[in-house]
Amino acid sequence: MMKRPLTLKFLFGYLLFMIALTLFCLTFGTNYIHKYVSNEKKAELYTYAQFIEDKYFTNLYDSASSYLNTAIAKEIQQYDSVLQTHVWVTNQTGTLLVDSENINLQGNNYIINDYDKSFFSEYYYENKTLSPLMQEPMLTVILPVTVNYSIRGYIIVYQPMEIFLQSISNFENILYLALLSIGIILAVFLIYCWFITIRPSKKIVKALYAYSSGDYDHTLSLHGKDEYEQMNTELNFLAEQLQNLDDYQKNFIANVSHDFRSPLTSIKGYAEAMQDGTIPPEMYNKYLDIIAFETERLTKLTNNLLSLNSFERGMANLDITSFDINHIIKRTANSFEGTCVKKHVKLNLTFSEKETFVNADKSKIQQVLYNLIDNAIKFSHNNSQIRITTIEKKEKVIVSIKDFGIGIPKNSLKKVWERFYKTDLSRGKDRKGTGLGLSITKEIINAHNENINVTSTEGVGTEFTFTLPLTTPNEI
């Protein structure tokens, strides 16, 4: 199905609105203008007729003097020249007494009823003719003059229709000009809306298409202090995170492949050598031990990956109990006795209290302690010491594992929690490590809603600290 761009929708909506507005103006607008101008003209002509009635009523109907009527006609003619009108005055029978347009017609016994018997039945006409007296179409008003409830005569004021039509045309021109102005203003407004909505939306779509295609280097640039600026920041941040995730996935696959390939190559090589007789039977035990060791490495790597995956997916269920953290530290430290003897490393345990009970998952905290102590021993110098302390502070216990070994470079401190990450200084000392121990450690502490931090100085040593909630024995 063909998609319609938003720009076409904007244009279609604009054209539809303008067509509807134009049709409305051409129907209701012109009808309203005609009615309005008609009422205004009618009121204007009636007012003029009433003025003539008030000023000349007595002289017109109480005098039979033709000279006087002519004088009045000439006077009215002056008003007509200003108002662009003409005036007839008749008696009650319709006989023409005054004609301001053609004074010579007066007194010739022109009787309006002889030309149109129904002329005086209406008081307002549009496009009226009355040949031969009124040959051009006229706008006409008729004002009956009454005395004691009886009609004494009529005052007829008429004006050429072209003046009436010109007034309508003037109003219609104003209407069309307003319509054009609305169209221009609306077009400018739509262009403005296009620039502040559609244009940035197109940039966003282009950026999203680039990100979906793997082009994370594409930079979205939206300006303005509005939601689009916030969206610009969020999408650029998203692109950075996707780039990091993409790099992480590549590194992850490369590291997993490497860490699996090495022991698998050893196992496969020694097994084939034993099978084809390259390794004599008397050497089997030696190489079987190597195969068992490499198998253990694979098992440990697999278990670590499964542990990390379960934490990330929120599937790691914690078995929270109350236990003495000092006792667990002692037990974990004792498990490194052989390694410490070989490297002449001494573990100094210092506890602020004889017993310190915490609420946590005992097995997973033991794993954290094992990873941190193992890491500290691995990067300590021979004939050095490692200090392990617990300090109670408010409702928390702070556990510290501090070594005086090679330390961590400053630019590597933030990366030590990443999967498979190994500092350049550690690569020669930790060829068999998986690089997952600290990642698992952080995930376990985070699952407890606690904090873990690291401080280090290269060539001086490293200290890992984490917190756990204090409790009393058998509290839960």
Description:
The chain is 53% helix and 19% strand. The protein contains ten helices and twelve strands. The strands form three sheets. The protein has a five-stranded antiparallel beta sheet with strand order 2-1-5-4-3. α1 (6-62) runs antiparallel to α4, α4 runs parallel beside α5 (227-275) and α7 (325-334) packs across α9.
Write the layout of secondary structure elements.
Layout (H helix, E strand, L loop, with lengths): L5 H57 L3 H18 L2 E6 L4 E4 L12 H4 L8 E7 L3 E14 L2 E11 H52 L14 H49 L8 H29 L7 E5 H10 L2 H7 L2 E6 L5 E5 H17 L6 E9 L2 E8 L33 H11 L4 E6 L3 E9 L7
Parallel strand pairs: 7-9
Antiparallel strand pairs: 1-2, 1-5, 3-4, 4-5, 6-8, 9-10, 10-12, 11-12
Helix pairs in contact: 1-2, 1-4, 4-5, 5-6, 6-10, 7-9, 9-10
Radius of gyration: 53 Å
- What is the count of DSSP helices, taking H or I runs of 4+ residues? 10
Low-confidence stretches: 424-431
Cα distance spanning the termini: 62 Å
Structural class: alpha+beta
Classify the helix fraction into a percent range.
Answer: 40-55%
What fraction of residues sit in β-strands?
Answer: 15-25%
Helices and strands, in N-to-C order?
A: HHEEHEEEHHHEHHEEHEEHEE
In which order are the strands of the major sheet placed? Answer: 2-1-5-4-3
The biggest sheet, with number of strands, parallel, antiparallel or mixed sense and barrel status, is: 5 strands, antiparallel
Q: What do the pLDDT scores average to?
A: 82
Q: Please provide the count of β strands.
A: 12
